[in-house]
Amino acid sequence: MPSQLVALCFDANDPHLLARFWAGVLGWKIVDDPHDGVTLLPNDDTGFRIRFLPTQEEKTGPNQTHFDLTSTSVEDQQATVARALELGGRHIDVGQLPEERHVVLADPEGNEFCVIEPDNKFLADCGFIGALSSDGTQRVGYFWSEALGWPLVWDQDEETAIRSPHGGPKITWGGPPVAEKTGKNRLHFDLAPPAGGDQEAEADRLVSLGATRLATGQGEAGQVAMADPDGNEFCLLAGPPAG
């Protein structure tokens, strides 16, 4: 059986500030995190938590992954933008074209996200978090499909997307050109072995799919620090989180 995606983790200079921002945008509940961070619990079919972990490193470039938030009408899109701005977000320019109708914003620490126009067909059946939109190769889309056991829902022109059979956001990879990786990603996934599964056996399976093990000290105690075929870091936990 495949790994479980249990959390999307943000490195944050101020985890509590960032957690309050995203709790306000998403309407999710803030709970204590056992590893000196802050966690948000979903109230929909998202299927994974969001964790904010302390770091001293400053953000230096665009993130490899960002949220695409959906909207049901132009008014709903405007309301999401207004709420994000009130909570401490800001408009940013990432080269979007005037005719593009999505709105590009950043959270208080500069993490990019988009509020998508209401008639976007690709995200039509998704919830508020429509997608985790990622910079990455076709190969890495195939890797994550096998790693998580999520089917491909898009595979065209080297662009790929997967989605849990239970619903929730799509995870997409835009294909070439892929930006050169210059340092540790600001966002990463926390995985857990399948129920009753062995952490080392699952790590070996992920390696067989194209992952690599990273040097010790990259993750928290009890975790296996790894990278996918594009070099994007992720952590394999010893088991599912409590609670």
TrEMBL record:
Top-level taxon: Bacteria
Domain VOC: 4-118, 125-239
Pfam families, per the entry: Glyoxalase_6 (PF18029)
Protein name: VOC family protein
Native source organism of the sequence: Sphaerisporangium corydalis
